[in-house]
Amino acid sequence: MSPLGRLLKNRRAGDTHTAWNLPNLQGPGLLTLTSQDFDDGAAMPLKTCAKTIRGEDLSPHLAWTPLPPGTAQLLLVVEDVDVPISRPAVHCLALIDPAATGHLEPGALAARRPGPGVRVLRSSVGRGYHGPAPIKGHGPHHYVFQLFALSAPEIDAAADRARPRALLPAVTAPVLARGRLTGVYER
């Protein structure tokens, strides 16, 4: 166990400040979000982790149940709720065109070459998907993949420059349905 991991062992952002709990991102319906790479609550494979810890930084496969009628845009938010700061770290923020794709292939959230119908936005770390790289010895980190079905494609070009903590509370399109999937990684 590293000294830093041991020192910060009991400091965690928690689930309270995730996108899932923002009042404007509540919705009446539920989606089932799944991955071929890991089950809900299970360990994420090394290939989905950051290159700094010998991973490939490859975003996982994601699939969801049929979307409710009227879905105009999907918002995907990936957050680490165990980071030792006051709020979860946003590891990926992306807009998905529901007409272009019904799932995401591995690597579809890459900053340089996103998959069809995917527009990656700025996250806490940079642009595109940034895989797990928790502090060694800090314990398990939970990476929450949250998908929101929006009734209007309201997020425009200005969103490309916005910080996640400013962008997420500003979403005003009604959420028709939402789903989440949690992956775990520990070093």
What are its keywords?
single chain; 187 residues; mainly beta; seven-stranded mixed β-sheet; three-stranded antiparallel β-sheet; 2 helices; 10 strands; globular
Secondary structure layout:
Blueprint: H1 3-7, E1 29-30, E2 33-34, E3 42-43, E4 62-64, E5 73-80, E6 89-96, E7 103-104, E8 118-120, E9 141-150, H2 164-167, E10 175-185
Task: Please describe what this structure looks like.
The chain has 187 residues and is mainly beta. The protein has helices spanning 3-7, 164-167; strands at 29-30, 33-34, 42-43, 62-64, 73-80, 89-96, 103-104, 118-120, 141-150, 175-185. The strands form two sheets. Strands 1, 3, 5, 6, 8, 9 and 10 form a seven-stranded mixed sheet that branches. The radius of gyration is 16 Å and the shape is globular. The termini are close together.
The global form is: globular
Strand content: 25-35%
Q: Kindly, what is the distance between the CA atoms of the first and last residues, rounded to a whole number of angstroms? A: 9 Å
**What is the mean pLDDT?**
91
Q: How many extended strands?
A: 10
Structural class: mainly beta
> Which bin fits the share of residues in helices?
under 10%
Describe the main β-sheet briefly. 7 strands, mixed
